[in-house]
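hey m, so remember when u said the tokens were messed up on ur end? i reran from scratch. heres the input so u can diff it against urs
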Amino acid sequence: MTLLMDVLPEQLGDWTDVLSGNRYLWQSGQLKPGHLSTVKGHLVLLAEQLHKSALQQSLQELDAAGINVEISGMKRVAERDVLSLRLSDWSLELKARLQQVANGWDLACVPALPDGHQPGLVLMDMDSTAIQIECIDEIARLAGVGDEVAAVTRAAMEGALPFSESLRRRVKALAGADAAIIEQVIASMPLMPGLITLVEGLKAMGWKVALASGGFTPFTGYLRQTLALDADFANTLEIKNGRFSGDVLGDIVDAEAKARILVELAERYDIPLSQTVAIGDGANDLLMLAQAGLGVALHAKPLVQEQAPVCLNQLSLEGVLGLLQAG
């Protein structure tokens, strides 16, 4: 049955029954039953509530680029609307054009998506990704050197300062402070919205979940234990006589280390890289995002917004679950 865009409901959430079990090709303002013979790209639109205008504006860009479109599904995932489209072609230019018209919704325009029905791995950053704070900034604030450390953190996350250098400078500023501050920060550490929903959803799908952080082991360890994560990787603060020495022990978990950890975990769990997802917000996450089958920037810094494969700005971590269940 051919569907006319003009008469379909304004809220895409009301399309669920219409699209259930059916696929439609977009042709001349109409949705006609059928499917693409060749799929070279995927477009997923996400929002708390998707309006028809989001689809219409996206279709205008796709039409202008000469892309054939199959609307393959509408779902409600984690109380968010998720619309899936398959594309006859894909390019970075197309992704950029679609991103420019996105006003009030998130999108992923990618050559391929991980299959949520198959085993997979999600590796995420911790600070400003799994949690809403930068732990070292909170430690520094309680130690009385907050402004000094926060300025270095900003420079590192924006890519203006090498991460390893920035970390050593920030930790050096903590020298002599009472290490009991760690427990104070853990006690008030705010989780990122959607984190529990994402982790529970991934576990239900049989996926592995881990943290790779440029932060510190007490915090990643707490999250691993509390959320029953599969692994965590972070830096070790040296503590002497109950106080920070100002040094970091061992190798620093920087951008290269995060990308390497993703590959090593995928090998450990026998998961193809195409079935991996990386989530982060800072410049030191970019290599990890590029290495993964799907790289997702969450409320990210401008540099990361420019380079990340997918950016979530409207939704939070529950949006990642929507992307994995889009198919």
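this time it looks ok to me. The mean pLDDT is 96. if urs says something different then somethings off w ur setup not the seq
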